[in-house]
Amino acid sequence: MIDKNGSGMLRGMVASAAVLMLFGGMCVADEWGDWGDWGDWEETDDWSRQLAGEIYVVGQMVGSDTVTYGGIAEDEIDSFTAYGIGVGISQGYFAVNTEFLMGSTSEVWAGSVEADADIWFWNVNVDWNVLPTRLTPVLTGGVGLVNMEGESGDGTTYEEDTFTYNLGAGGRWDITDHIVIKVIYRITWGEFESADEANQFEGLLASVGYVFR
Question: Which of 32, 69, 85, 150 has the fewest CB atoms within 10 Å, counting from its CB?
Fold first, then answer.
């Protein structure tokens, strides 16, 4: 669970900046050769960000904030892990990808009513690969949908969904011409019907993929 009053957003921004700076520093070290002779990680004449397709598996550790409904009842969603699959296409510095993630969590309404819920996300994102090298910082943003379906202890069921938008920062490493990993800290916002404000879902996302060249 993420604290309200702006602290959750601030923490997300700090985490995103930290991940971006980490990968930026790794890229600088790589360019200067500070890692020693671990292999040719730099861009070579026979490798570039040419038109390519990707398929990948992805997981995200997701935390959420507390949201009020009707100005009275509070809804607290526990942290959870979502897993899924995605596909994308890249050309030059930019990539477009779409992915589907699912997870299970629990929530507490009005401080006492507990419920178990399944939640899924569908996103379409545009990535900016900042550098033309195998190891590069990445900035990303996109839109999508989130759906939550659950059942409380007394048997009451519910389902709600809404549009979302997201921002993130991290890094991408093309280990070989066909294997790529990405690590991104991503924040997603979406306001469910009757909620007084948007939920903020955030956490570290990691993916491993195969590139078709």
Answer: 32
pTM across the whole model:
0.78
Query: Beta strands of the chain (E only): which ranges?
Result: 52-64, 66-69, 73-77, 80-91, 94-109, 113-129, 135-152, 157-174, 179-190, 199-212
Residue 147 near residue 160, CB atoms below 8 Å: yes
Domain 7-32+68-212 fold is Porin (2.40.160)
Amino acid at 171: G
CA angle 204, 205, 210 (to 5 degrees): 155
pLDDT in tens, 3-57: 444 555 555 555 545 555 555 555 545 544 444 444 444 444 445 678 899 999 9
Domain boundaries, the chain: 7-32+68-212
HSE-CB for 165 with a 13 A CA cutoff: 2
Q: How far apart are CA 82 and CA 125, in angstroms?
A: 17
Q: Helix or strand or coil: residue 17?
A: helix
- Residue 193 has which token pair? 């019907």
Q: Could you give the dihedral angle defined by the CA atoms of residues 90, 96, 100 and 106, in that order, rounded to the nearest 10 degrees?
A: 120
